[in-house]
Amino acid sequence: MSLQNSPVVPIRLRKFIGAVALFVLAIIWALLAMAVAQIPAIRGNAVGSVLYYIIAGLGWVVPAMPLVRWMSRRTET
User: Which of 19, 3, 13 has its CA nearest to residue 76?
Assistant: First the structure.
């Protein structure tokens, strides 16, 4: 299937889908980060906790970048 024959998703629908997906990603990421933070090696070490929370707090951006890129892409007509 070539790109010329692929269905075009309107930008408003793409942004809605992307917003819902980002919301779900943030919730799932936060729940997983809280669960992993309870591991004794992280919980018992102050420096490890700080580093973990910095990495976990910024880490959701990596999977969100392609989604935001897809949301903001112009539609080719």
Answer: 3
Range of the domain at 61: 3-72
| pLDDT, tens only, 47-64 | 999 999 999 999 999 999
Q: What is the pLDDT of residue 31?
A: 96
Largest CA distance in the chain: 56
Whether residue 77 lies inside any domain: the answer is: no
pLDDT, tens only, 32-43: 999 999 999 888
Give the alpha-carbon dihedral of 10, 75, 29, 47, to 10 degrees.
Answer: -150
User: Closest Cα to residue 14, out of 63, 75, 61?
Assistant: 75
Structural domain count of the chain: 1
Instruction: Name the amino acid, one letter, at 62.
Output: V
Supply the pTM of this predicted model: 0.75
Contacts of 48 (CB under 8 A, 6+ apart): 41, 42
